Predict the structure.
Amino acid sequence: MKAHIDQLFEKSDLSDKALLALLDGMSDDDVHYLFESARRKKQLHYGDSVYMRGLIEFTNYCKQRCAYCGIRADNGQVERYRLNKAQILQCCEEGHALGYRTFVLQGGEDPFYTDDRLVDIIRSIKSSFSDCAVTLSVGERSRESYMRLKEAGANRYLLRHETASPSLYASLHPGMSQENRIQCLYTLKSLGYQVGAGFMVGLPNQTHADLVADLRFLKQLSPEMVGIGPFIPQKDTPLGQVPHGSVRMTLIMVALTRLLLPQVLLPSTTALGTLDSKGREKALRAGANVVMPNLSPTDVREQYALYDNKICTGDEAAHCRQCIERRIVSAGFRVDMGRGDHPDYQTSS
Ligand code: 5AD
Ligand code: FES
C-alpha cells in the first residue's frame, strides 16, 4: 500500500484499481502514512496556513427534495427563514471586524432569490467590503444566472456533486439530473469562477468503487475547492434512521483528494466536527487547509439543520472565530486571514 501512496504523492494520480485497493485494504499504519503524505503535500503548496471563510446561511427554504437533507422541501418540521439584505450585510460587517476576507453565502434552492435580488446583495457586499471575496452556494441555476452573478462580483461557487455514482445520485435526488449538475460545474468553470465540488461519505449503499468514482470525477473536473463530509442522518428525512458515515473513511478521502489535486482548497468540514470532537483537527492533519466558521445570526442557526446534532448552533461568530483558531493552532498550523484565492487565481478582484 505504501508504494501506491508514494506513487500518488509523486504523480498526483493513480489508477482506479490502485485507489480501490487502498480503500479496501489499508492498515492503520498505511492510513497514518497516507495522512502524513497528504500533510506534506499541503505543506509544500500552502505551508502552515489555514484559510478562514465566514459562512452565512441566508435561507433555509429549498425547492429540492434531496433524501438526506434536513431542509428538503417536504420537511414540514423546519421553521423556514430568509435573511434580508440588511441582515446579510450585518453578518459581513461582524465578520469583517473579526478579520474574515471571504464570505460564503449559502442557502437552499430558494426561488425568492431571483437573479435581481442576488445581484443586488452581491453588489452591496462587494462595494462595502472591496477587499473580500464572495463565494456563492445556492445550487443549480442557468448559465445566464451564473453569468449575472459573476458580473455582479461573485468570485467563487460551491456546488457539491454529492456522489459521482449515477444510480446512487438518482436514488437520492428525486426530480433532479446528475447530468445537469455536472454541466453546472463545467459552466461555472467556463465563466471564470473558482469552483468547489464535493461529496458525502457513507451514503446508504455507497461502495468503495463509488468513492473511487468520486475521486476520478474530481481529477477530471479539477475544481479549485472540494468539500467532503460524512453523511449524517437528519431525523425528519427519508434517511433519518440510516447510520452515519465513517470519520476514518472521510479523512481518507480528504487525504486522497489532497494528493490527487495538490493545490486544492480543502475544507475541514463541520460535519466531521459534529461526529468527532477532534474531527476538524484530524482533517487538517490529513491535508485539509480551510475552515468555514458560521457567521449566521444565532437566532436562525438551529433552523439550518441539514443533519442532526450540528455543532456551533448556539455560538456567536466571535466565539467560533476564537474556538477555531485554538483548534488550528493545536493541530500545528496557523490562521491565515487572507482572501485565500486558489494559486491560479491570485489576481481576482
Ligand atoms: N449529512 C451530511 N451532509 C449533508 N449535506 C446535506 N445534508 C447532509 C447530511 N444529512 C451536505 C450536502 C450539501 C452540503 C451543503 O451539505 O453535501 O451539498
Ligand atoms: Fe464554533 Fe468551535 S467553531 S464553537
About this structure: The chain has one domain: 14-337. The mean pLDDT is 97. The chain has 14 helices and nine strands. The longest strand covers residues 194-201.
